[in-house]
Structures are given as structure tokens and as C-alpha cells.
Amino acid sequence: MNLNHVHIGTKDLKKSIDFYCLLFGFKTKFNHDPGVFLSNDAGFLIAIDPVDEILKFPAWFHLGFCLNSEAEVQSIYQKAKELKVKIARDLMTEKDQFASFFILDPDGYKIEVSWHNE
User: Fold this and answer.
1) Helix (H), strand (E), coil (C) string for the chain
2) What confidence tens digit (pLDDT) does each residue in 73-92 have?
3) What is the pTM assigned to this prediction?
4) At the fourth CATH level, which superfamily is domain 60-118?
């Protein structure tokens, strides 16, 4: 069994679409008025719907993207900095072991970007 999708709300649909597409390579799979489904190359979906209010999650809650290499983590970290994405926890690395950082999407959802040598 695989996790298929996550469904989030947004105050600004265009900003959210741009965020996930530019940083993580998602593409619009289909619109479901008024929202959208985005998909990545692995087939994972993010459903995004406009909402009036963003719910506050506990500080520990986050979404995690596990990448294939330390270089991929470094690349997304640099891209996030260039796009002036809010960094929630700076890049931490141990050469050839792990690399990770946390960012916030446009609505404040915390996202971990990581790679682990397992």
C-alpha cells in the first residue's frame, strides 16, 4: 500500500501551485473547480483547494519529501533561497550520510526536504 495524496487548503491557489511546481517539479494533473490536483513523477498527488482560513497544525506536524541524493537536497535548498522561501530550519548535512532542511509553503505548511543514506 502506498500513500496516494495529501489535501491542503490555500489562501492563494496560484502561489501554492507555483511553489510546488517550481520547487518540487509537480505538474497540474487536473482541475477540480475551484481547486487543483498536482502530480509528481512518482504519481504522488497534492490536492489544493482555496479556503477562507488556514488551520493551525501542531509545531511537530510537517510534510516530508525524501529525495534521491544529497545533491538534490542542496539544489532545492538553493532554489528555495533564490525564491525567498521562508526557511524554518536551515540545511543540516553529514557528508554521505544525510541532508535535510525545513521550509514553509505560502500558507505556512512546514515541509521537510531530506535525503538519508540507508
Assistant:
1) CCCCEEEEEECCHHHHHHHHHHHHCCEEEEEECCEEEEECCCCCEEEEEECCCCCCCCCCCCEEEECCCHHHHHHHHHHHHHCCCCEEEEEEEECCCEEEEEEECCCCCEEEEEEECC
2) 999 999 999 999 999 999 99
3) 0.93
4) 2,3-Dihydroxybiphenyl 1,2-Dioxygenase, domain 1 (3.10.180.10)
